[in-house]
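Worked example (supplementary).
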Amino acid sequence: MENFIINNPTCLHFGRGVIDDLSKVLGKYGKRVLLVYGKNSIKTNDIYRQIINQINIANASVYEYSGIKSNPVISDVDAAAAVGRDNQVDVIVAVGGGSVIDSAKIIALAVPMQNTAWDIMENKVKPVRSIPLIAVLTLAATGSEMNPFAVVQNDLTKQKPGYFSPLIFPKHSFLDPVFTYSVPADYTAYGIVDLVAHALEGFFGKGETSLTDRFISSIIKEAMEYGPLLLKHLNKYEYREKIMFAATCALNGMTSYGKKNGDWGVHGIGHSLSVLYDVPHGASLSIAYPAWMKYFKNQIGEKLSFLGKELFNTPDPTVTIQGFEMFFKQLGAPTKLSDLGLGSRHKIEIINNLITNKVNGDNFLMDKVDLENIFDLMAN
Amino acid sequence: MENFIINNPTCLHFGRGVIDDLSKVLGKYGKRVLLVYGKNSIKTNDIYRQIINQINIANASVYEYSGIKSNPVISDVDAAAAVGRDNQVDVIVAVGGGSVIDSAKIIALAVPMQNTAWDIMENKVKPVRSIPLIAVLTLAATGSEMNPFAVVQNDLTKQKPGYFSPLIFPKHSFLDPVFTYSVPADYTAYGIVDLVAHALEGFFGKGETSLTDRFISSIIKEAMEYGPLLLKHLNKYEYREKIMFAATCALNGMTSYGKKNGDWGVHGIGHSLSVLYDVPHGASLSIAYPAWMKYFKNQIGEKLSFLGKELFNTPDPTVTIQGFEMFFKQLGAPTKLSDLGLGSRHKIEIINNLITNKVNGDNFLMDKVDLENIFDLMAN
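After joint prediction of all chains, the assembly is encoded as:
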């Protein structure tokens, strides 16, 4: 084990009807609320009404910024921060999935500063405070509701960096599985891929921790058992709650206890596919992970063997990789670039973007040749 | 799943040498430190020197209370609180196992009040604030380092109640596995029993949560794999760290995510054995748990079957119970009252104490007849 610190201050409210406690929680932070959300779907599924109702009960005034994209962009963050600054908001309520919550985290840092959001993302300035952030989750996937990470892309520079600060843990997050009922099958599947990929990034990180690895395989098992059932019954509370809870656990810190960090090389590859071709985040990972595993198979043989025994009843690394591929296919997620109409004609563009963005793993290093080989495994 | 809240504010520092960060952390809370510990063993194993060194680096003054017993008593809590009050301490540093940390939690509440500690334990008064508490763990067992619970006994009334308050989470806890090297084999074993029992109390609690149950079986597996190895190599860092981390996870909240609460009936029985005959806490649990499982076997058959498959490669509830019994024996822990020289001549006294203390499970209810039957299973 590596030395480590556990310090997760987010208060997570999980279960049916938990949104009814939002007004009480809001009361702790002030009377001026910046409400951030994505497309207008929350207006059709009653979530918006419930949020506004809670804000009214709290006797607070609300300023809105909507339209955050599913691969969120930095220009929205700057525009939302301006709304927050102009209206001197006390607290931010982010309603959505990881895109909205990640954006809101950077907004929370940008509101009290004069710098652009991109200056923050690029670590040109070091924020010293943030506006308190409350998250209301509507998509089970990224774990953003209980972690200090954010990923936002820059369409001009074609970059999609990650950002970390203890200042951006949500103060409170509200997770009602009913709020995810309207997520369609494809995005539900991508969320399941994303949570499995997060667990794997922890698993392949630096440092051996047997108990953490057992937690990780528990999370993946849960996703493999209930993910396919959920896709058959999108409105079943039990399956929505299991996937929602598993997604939180996959990136709330517990998959890296006793590790130096996760690997995150596959996420880097996925981000390039998203920033170049607007590939949904989860879909980029179901393509990149099997290829990455195949390429590093010899180095990760023992670890694959552990997962194989836990998940697929086999110690064989190759069969284990096939198991993951089959699982992603079973969810209806793409496992090859060709599934998205991409192929070798995009190789140069993709490799260039990976190199420009310095994509690498923290544990398994990748140079240009490695990335090219992984590309070939993604293509075919 | 039941609705639930995750909210654990303790900052946990885990690993070799983490105590070197104590001075920095102390600086956040003030200059007057109440140092609480047990017997003088920390003076022989260099821990005391390291703590005092850190307090000196922080330029703080220290007031000491030592002599906390391994089944801690309320009179020590009152006496220590008086020392804290008289010296207007800003922060408490508790160095020890669960007994010391549990005592320190009640001390932290009692210092700013005029009431006795027993008034607090009995909920006659409701504390509104506490002195910040920093824990330095020297025994892997109770999980007190990362939870809001405390158990202290009253020798006069022969009661050993549990207490809960969000005010008593340690602000920081320092866990260096090296600090547990000097724990002898028997108490090391009792600590392992205790952590397994905590995981089981969560497992048998109200509410089904498949992922939490997977986490629980992960923790028990870890204890079963590395507990016996540790007992053979008491000074091996790797085994000390694995058991120390497993013990924290067994009672830091994650074993009751999505459950109404744990059961805790077995702990109630164990506390009566401790308060009557000074039985070490873990030793009381290795006797009580197998008996409790045998008595409730029909009601918990399916749950035992799940554990059996995960831990003992069998779906058979009876074989699973035998597996736990064998494991406790392998650790050298008692599994029958007769192992401690207790027997049927103590039945009336034990049953009376159980009844007086209203011992019961939160999920599996026990009346007098149930308790008598469980006693018989503990005896023989």
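Two points are worth noting when inspecting this output. DSSP finds 15 helices and nine strands in chain A. The beta strands of chain A are 4-6, 11-14, 32-37, 61-65, 91-96, 133-137, 149-151, 162-164, 172-175.
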